[in-house]
Design the sequence.
């Protein structure tokens, strides 16, 4: 019940938004409850990540609270305004999270350029240099599969699709590469034949 004797559930969307703007805790809770499923639905549809979608939903309600006074009912409903905020925040999150990785087609060139320069030695520690060198010594197909799985986070199925090979072959390449890499990195060095 509000101070006027009207149940909160019967208030219009605009009245709840006004209550949110004034900081009324009861109206703010009612506002969030009324729209939380739609806002979360928009965020999850864009992001596909429930945890990040929850964060975006929370940011949406924070932004609605901060900007409630600029809402204009002539430009659309409260629902439209709120879902637009959620959609825009979700798109921004996708853009900020998307790194610009090297295309898997360019892995051959990357794996072939494992050289030790004074700059690399100064920047990279011995372990990472050893790892890069060990990956470079793997057969090309195994190195590609390992890098796609380890660096790009691709599944064996995604690797199989990308490389146009059977799923079992992709799994074998990853598993064999991991085994060889483990052997190379844990066995004592005996020159270049490691």
Sequence:
């Amino acid at each position: 019940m509000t101070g006027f004797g009207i149940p909160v559930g019967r208030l219009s969307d605009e009245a709840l938004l006004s209550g949110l703007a004034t900081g009324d805790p009861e109206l703010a809770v009612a506002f969030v409850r009324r729209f939380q499923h739609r806002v979360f639905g928009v965020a999850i549809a864009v992001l596909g990540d429930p945890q990040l979608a929850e964060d975006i939903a929370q940011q949406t309600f924070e932004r609605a609270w901060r900007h409630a006074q600029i809402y204009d009912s002539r430009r659309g409903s409260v629902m439209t305004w709120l879902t637009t905020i959620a959609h825009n925040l979700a798109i921004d999150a996708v853009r900020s999270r998307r790194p610009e990785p090297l295309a898997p087609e360019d892995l051959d060139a990357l794996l072939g350029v494992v050289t030790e320069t004074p700059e690399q030695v100064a920047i990279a520690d011995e372990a990472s240099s050893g790892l890069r060198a060990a990956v470079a010594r793997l057969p090309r197909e195994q190195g590609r599969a390992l890098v796609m799985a380890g660096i790009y986070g691709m599944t064996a199925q995604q690797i199989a699709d990308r490389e146009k090979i059977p799923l079992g072959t992709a799994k074998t390449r990853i598993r064999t590469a991991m085994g060889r890499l483990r052997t190379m990195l844990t066995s004592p060095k005996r020159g270049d034949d490691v």
Summary: The radius of gyration is 27 Å. The first helix runs from residue 13 to 22.
